[in-house]
Amino acid sequence: MKRLGYTSYAAQGGDWGAVIVDLMGVQAPKGLLAIHTNMPGIFPADIDGAAFSGAPAPSGLSAEEKVAYERLQFVYQKGIAYGFQMGLRPQTLTGLADSPVGLAAYFLDHDARSYELIARVFQGQSEGLTRDDILDNITITWFTNTAISGARLYWEYFGKGYFNAKGVSIPVAVSVFPDELYPAPRSWTERAYPKLIYYNKHDKGGHFAAWEQPQFISQDLRAAFKSLRDVKATR
Fold first, then answer.
1. Which of 20, 75, 86, 196 could cross-link to 154 by cystine, CB 3.0-4.6 Å?
2. Residue 97 lies in a domain
3. What's the whole-model pTM score?
4. Contacts for 153 with CB less than 8 Å, ≥ 6 apart
């Protein structure tokens, strides 16, 4: 951002971008005013560990927290096997570079909610994506031959935690979508981000919200960061 000539900026991320903006928020470089995330790292360490272990939901959770816990537990048990493959042996996934059908199958084998969204699109329904959107995503990866090089990101970060609270110290805005891997409860969100400046729950949208529901993301960004623009303008 400095090379581009910006002295102040905000950062937004979902999926891997959500992990990246969280870590940017931990580092808090000069000029980074705030972050926005639609997959916030909000789980306390003990809750994250319990979900990973497969333990029943701890007692004392609110209804929202229990839903988030059960969804995270499902992700760990049923939805993130590819992450372990890529995190441990990314260079062995040669089928992704050898067969376009194999690559498509791997891309389409998502967690249950994302898979349902993709299936609805291929059945002619609209959920913010089109058949061409999905095929374009696969095609770009195939023609650039970046499936395996992209997998190395999992290897480089493996074991450091995706969904846990990381100690972000700067202002944070959060958008919550019902078909995300887990719906972030406000209680854990406020604990994870002491400087939470914006929190909004939507009635539709999934894991790749910026791709699926760009209008919601753009609206939230404008609303969340308006206060920062106003403060900056008075200086």
1. 86
2. yes
3. 0.89
4. 16, 86
